[in-house]
Amino acid sequence: MSLWHFGRVRIGFGKLLAQLRIRGFGRAEDAELADPAAPGGSVHSLAKEPFGKVAEGLAVLFFYASATFAITYPLFLNPATTVLDAIHAYGSAGALVVPDIYFTMWVMAWGWHALTSAPSSLFDANIFAPAPRTLAGSEHMLGHLPIFGPFFALSGNPVLAYQANLFLSFTLCGCAMYALLRHWGTSRFAALLAGFIYAFAPVRLHMIGHAHLLATQYLPVAVIFLDRTLRHGRVRSAVAFAAVLLLQMLCSYYTAYATVIALAGYVAGVAWATRLRLSWRNLGLASAAALAAAVPFVAISIPYVQLKTSGIIPQYQEGFWSLTGTSAGLWRNYLYPPGLIRQGWRLPHGAPIYVGILPLLTALALAVRSCPRATRYSWPVTACLGSALACYVISLGPKILVAGVTVPLPYALALRLVPGFDSMRVVSRIGLLFMFGFAGLVGLGAERVMRKLGPKMERPQYRVAAAAVFLALVAVEYDFPWRRYLAQTVPTAQGVPEVYQVLRRLPPAPLVEIPGGTPGIIGSRQESEYVFLSIFHWRPLLNGYSGYRPPSYLVTMALARALPEHRALELLQRTTGLGYLVVHLDRLPPGKRAQWNNPPGMRVLYRSNNALLLTPEHESPTDLLPALLDFHPRETTILGTPIQPVSADQQQVDLRLNGSPPTSVFTGLPLDLEVVLTNRSTTTWPALASVGEPLVYLGYRFVGPGGRVIQEVQNAARLPDDPRPGVPVRATLTAFAPQTPGDFHLVVGLSQGGKWFPTLIELPISVKPWPK
Questions:
Q1: pLDDT, tens digit (0-9, with 9 covering 90-100), for 487-498
Q2: Taking the model in full, what pTM does it have?
Q3: Secondary structure class of 626 (helix, strand, coil)
Q4: What are the Cα distances from residue 222, in Å, to 127, 245, 315, 402?
Q5: Three-state secondary structure along 729-741?
């Protein structure tokens, strides 16, 4: 005999409503959900008339779309040409978010381009050329393509498609949670509140610059089909559950892990409420559906496993989170108002995941037990509680400190047992799906409160008024009236620089953009823009931006920064098959810009005041390509030089700087120095290799008063060649000023294996604080 026994009760004219009565623990006697007297119970269900359902759905869609537009105004005012102004939204930290926005647009556009032209090349993306599987350096975001793809295909505009996807992630999250609450049998009032909390929780708005994390609209839909599978055991429900679950997991690996955690807590709550009296057949069918979703998800993840095996994707040990503060923090973070953060108050620890006092009190109304002793919690309540609790505990990270005692948490076990957990850098993102269980509890609690207030609250006018008051108070709590998301313009269509339009008409060949490979925030912004603009030509790009970079990128960018030297051009051709160079003259300092007036060995294809499009005059064989892409430990460099320590008597070098060295800099800013070195020994030094140690690097250190080393980076720059005896090598070094102002000496030199060569350049540098 199955757990579920169904019957129907008609309550009121023109409404088809249902009850699920729970006797003892989990004995159901009605069609929908719960005893009206039990917490989480309801006397409402979805209208069965098709017209009523469509009208209700359109009204709900309009409500959440309007709320999205209003809360984020004016972010979506010009969606075809603008995206979030991350600097305004995040302050100085926004400089790290801007490249992510460009990159996210490229990832989604590349996924659609690859799947509609050459699906087998999906992971061999056009960045970091010629390295393989470069898409696996970050999220593939395939779950976003059902929304992003059609907009991109019809408009050819990645900005419009990105903005539409972001806009609908909020709107559809609200609609999906509304549908789930109605599926559970709550009133429209309770479902509307739950959807609002789920869609517009401060943690989601805080992550608005990371659109790939916000597409959590599929989880409530997956739960609807999971419920139907557990109750009715229909194959079509199980198939739908598998399909929607897979779609949710494909949006992001963070949301994939969080979805599994949330569903595990949900099922645990169902098992608790029903005393495991579920039908074994139905439970097996649901498990088979989950496995069916896992198989393609794991298959798609194989390139990530390959990169992790090769060491390109690192693993983070337990101490990483305590050092970086990427966990969600304790309960304080969930009660820390966004208004305080806006006013400059700092969180005690971790990420802001504010739930709101009023929503929390509404959810806690479920704990008020005024019903008969024999009546227990309905399973939607325990299921939501289990889901929220599971996500909360995991989002804390591997361990917490309580009264001076370190308490290990389940995440520590998952680090060792669950593939991929040890490669996630921001554990607090799992807290996004804490809001799934919490929003469900808010909706169920609101339904309980409304029914406890008496029959008058059944009247539409009272419910509308109550909803308006509740949403207004939550909006104030969530700081909506004081939020403002400004937008910045992004080049699209005719706004794309003409050099890319010319490039698009040329035969395919690898491309490098100059300047490129610059370390730090400025370099990340440049590289991400190049990646985004590659959407408009899709040429293989030596530049790149991603979560993790292939080792070959360090070599190709060292060579690119040495251009227009003929030797660097030759080695780029031999390692990558370089076909085109785009030089952004307006981004180069005057001295560097002059070097591109008549570059040796190159032919001009296009020239404007701001850009050059060049091609090598002569083709060259790619004989060094295999060595560049050999990421296994090597005994020789790409050029065949043995990788071994340079003896002390062979560390003879002349060093000089090109141009006038700077004398002052603001704190934290980069200093670009062009260094010319000449090997005065009798042996060639190992330097040009994708992998291998010990290599010879350019490095620097800042020395303060009394000879105290303030900052030191020994491997700050790769050399663009293996320095041969008597042959000058020109390389660019970027040194970042200390965060503390003062008078220092900048010391530049060569290093190998953690030891400096004896010859050094020493420059006096005044590091000034930023003007107020």
A1: 999 988 878 999
A2: 0.89
A3: helix
A4: 35, 6, 31, 36
A5: EEEEEEEECCCCC
